[in-house]
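Annotated sample (chain length 400).
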Amino acid sequence: MTMMAIYAERALTPIEEIRDAAILVDGARIAAVGRRGEIAVPRGAVEFRARAGSTLIPGFVDVHIHGAGGHDVMEGTDEAFDAVTATVARFGTTSIVATTVTASPEETCRSVAAIARAAKRGAEASGSGSVGARAEILGVHFEGPFISAARRGVHPAEWIAAPSVALLDRFLDAAGDAARILTLAPELPGALELVREARRRGLVAAMGHTDANYAEAEAAIAAGVRHAAHVFNAMRPFSHRETGVLGAVLTSREVTAELIADGVHVDDAAIRLLLAAKGIERTVLVSDGTAATGMPDGRYRLGSFEVNVTGGVCRNAEGKLAGSTLTLDRAVRHMAGLGVGLSDAVRMATLNPARVLGIEARKGILAAGADADLVLLDELFQVAGVMTRGAGWPATSSRD
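Output written by the structure step:
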């Protein structure tokens, strides 16, 4: 396969800024990254120069997303997965962890088995450049059913379940080796046993949809919880006398914190508080995106129920927020608008989520040997080109 050299005014790896950057792509992988004069480009390589003012970054990694392009991942069909992965790729997301919504055990098992099959197909795909960019499905994020009824958000109450190793085993058997994250409410009886079992089976244990107090959350961290789902949302509110789960999340150096930075789910002052407490390196931008992502206002499916989207905001029939229409490029721009440097904002949507999953050598970084998941941003930080494992772009660049 012909190698490709891509040049841009700068690249954010994101831990390093490289001026007059060059990235050499060999099939589905990055072969070299550095300054243009330092990269030996093989004879016969196809060369492209990005437009002036452009920045190359790694593709975004979304560890909490339910759907996009008019489809929900729990539909479990090839059509749904194709729509979701193609839609988010347009906005720079090149890897996703398909996220469930609380449903019946049978529905959950059917859905995660389908996600696992889609993830396997994606892992076997190579960057031929013959098809458009599509995000890779990395596996399953179980959001529920082991959550708090008091903090369930829009999750159907009838399918909330008490923590059960036996039920978790059913889910994991259906998911096979595609299981990645389990979000639960740690205050529920039996939850800590589930945390330990999830860790034993190789999952990231996360707190979310929880009414835990501070002591309960601390006990969960001691048991192995290392992540917190959409912090501030669907959690017991912070109080100066009983700080609750937020007190534990904000003060723990072991827990990474998801953030939905769409200007709707979390106030900007709370975002600044989160960054001050967690730092850039332990903050993870997520979309919590639904089928409405990339679509006009209307009615869409979220798991087994419908949501209504008005003005780009998703709500259920009761008026509760129900996921979002956020894309991670918008989240990065929102953070940059708050004064966060572009490298740091990009890191929160690339390297940080990859580290949560333990795949930072392959995803979320521009480095030799990593997947050729590349995003080109213009001078306004808008997505101008996307490559997923060598496929897709650089059709938007002018030839050198």
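Annotation: Residues 4-56+368-399 form a domain with the Urease, subunit C; domain 1 fold (CATH 2.30.40.10).
Annotation: The radius of gyration is 20 Å.
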